[in-house]
Design goal:
disordered C terminus; 2 domains; single chain; 337 residues; four-stranded parallel sheet; eleven-stranded mixed sheet; alpha/beta; DHBP synthase
Amino acid sequence: METQILSRSRGWLDLAKKYIKDGEVVAFHTETVYGLGANAFSDDAVLKIFELKGRPQDNPLIVHVHKDYDISLLIDSEPFYAAALRKAFLPGPLTMVYPSTGRVSKYVSCGLDTLAIRMPSSPTAQEFLKAVDLPIAAPSANLSKHVSPVTARHVYEDFNGKIPLILDGGACRGGIESTVLDCTGEIPQILREGLVTREMIASVAGDCGIYHAKQGEKPKSPGMAYKHYSPRCKTAFFRENQTEEAVALYHEAETAGEKPCFLCERDVCALLPNFRTLDLGGSGEEMARKLYALLRKGEKTATLLIGIEPREKGGVMAGVLNRMHRAFGVEHGPEES
């Protein structure tokens, strides 16, 4: 199969619509990461996503819809606060989980009686979703457990020859996946942290909790696996007060013939002028935008990627730290108690 990468051009949406109607899988740009999309009503198409990614079938998918889609067709009920949250943050990087009507494929929610719905703000995503006018089930467009893609080229690297089309909207501005919010209870609960923060949600809904998964519990949301978003090289991770230990490991690895590299925030990079470094940036938003691109760069340029945890913890950094901990296989980060 030939994999085409198309940006806005004559007939690009007609081609995407044809592939979706034929049960194929199409990758598309969103403001967070690229998605790997198929018709959410089709069992065969949804199962193809799991097969292509090598994704466990207990890991539910998110359904993407355009901003004018009538979500009452898909959800059974909506708490009072959800409408206010939709008005405040959608289209945007927020996924909302509702009781499901069961109209989409049973494989989307992996046996759960809920459905996760997202309205991305990316113009490319909105045009695509409007053209097909169907709910599109779409996880991130990467092989399971690999680093999520933030450019069309990243998608191509994982799926060249496996999918027919990638809709290229440029580099993703957000950089980490959407916040996933459980809207089935009296107050909303965050299942996965992202660019829409707990503080932002609470300012609209009046309150917001954070869900902590229990040992052995079936995932309620994508991105809850222990090791996830991982680069294809050896990794090590150090807390913000362990820079000396990180430097010692760097020297040890270099002596052993390895090619180590640090992944850290800008202020720490400045303290390591004579070392190979990848600069995450200074703000939470910048670190979110750059994280996945740098993890993918690191796996190509280093044999050992050494992460140093940023000092900032609040706001958007909760989502950044969540992704860093999972990428480096840190089982219990400070935000995951």
